[in-house]
Design goal:
Rossmann fold; AB_hydrolase_fold; 8 strands; single chain; acyltransferase activity, transferring groups other than amino-acyl groups
Length: about 260
């Protein structure tokens, strides 16, 4: 695999932005690394960070480079600060950045596939919310989305972060039933004629977000939206996410698994 620490200007944010990118590099001489390549342009996983982290965290806390290598998949890991992947009421337009600008910029820099069938998104905690938000808002762009310990009920959870909620959504803003609400977005996908992305939801039973995840799982089932759901003993911590990002990579509908 090749690793890039990429710094670039974002028109959407109006400032310099950052992302880590790992790309497949087939080799017969890398010690201890399996490698494969699918074609001229790489299947791509957009991998999102949580509330207190940045673009570097997946590389620092997991072996994502080694895990991705055997699957022949590119991984793009951007930084969005504490934005909840949203155009902030009092801050930069991080939703525009992550949903529109970043994919175009990354593809202009690197040989990344554009087809829906070769694009996936995953994340942990706040990033799990961002992953599901992207895939449910744009089911025409993403074939699969995975949430690890995700903030799936943002209207409920943001009560614990009043300052962030005010900066992101505005004073007294109602989130439920809007384009920021995953329950609402899931219902919109069911009502549309577009194919649903494959969904994967995992949460530890001791995680403070566990009850929210169970409620979201049950809601998806009630509206007929299929999702793979897993739970096991675990808390909101990197040992759990390091194990389960490997499961996510095994689950992704890559071309050689058709």
């Amino acid at each position: 695999m090749a690793f890039f620490d990429c710094h670039f200007h974002s028109d959407a944010l109006g400032v310099a932005a950052t992302m880590n990118v790992i790309l497949p590099q087939p080799s017969t001489s890398q010690i201890g690394m399996a490698a494969q390549k699918h074609g001229a342009k790489h299947p791509t996983l957009l991998l999102l960070h949580g509330l207190s982290d940045d673009h570097s965290i997946w590389m620092r806390r997991t072996s994502i480079e080694r895990y991705a290598s055997k699957h022949g998949i590119a991984v793009v890991m951007p930084a969005v600060n504490r934005s909840f992947y949203t155009d902030m009421a009092y801050g930069p337009k991080y939703w525009t950045f992550i949903s529109e600008e970043l994919p175009a910029i990354a593809r202009s820099f690197f040989p990344l596939a554009e087809e829906r069938e070769l694009n996936y998104v995953a994340g942990l905690s706040m990033g799990g919310y961002g992953a599901l938000k992207l895939a449910l808002t744009h089911p025409d762009r993403y074939a699969a989305a995975a949430s690890l310990s995700g903030v799936v009920d943002i209207a409920n959870r943001m009560q614990a972060f009043p300052q962030d909620a005010m900066l992101i959504f505005g004073e007294g803003a109602e989130v439920r039933g809007t384009a920021s609400d995953l329950f609402h977005l899931a219902e919109q996908v069911v009502r549309s004629s577009q194919p649903s992305p494959q969904l994967y939801q995992i949460c530890g039973t001791e995680d403070f977000l566990y009850e929210d995840n169970v409620r979201f799982r049950d809601y998806l089932r009630s509206i007929g939206l299929e999702a793979k759901y897993e739970e096991e003993p675990g808390q909101h911590e990197w040992g759990f996410w390091d194990r389960h990002i490997q499961n996510v990579l095994e689950w992704l509908p890559l071309p050689n698994r058709a």
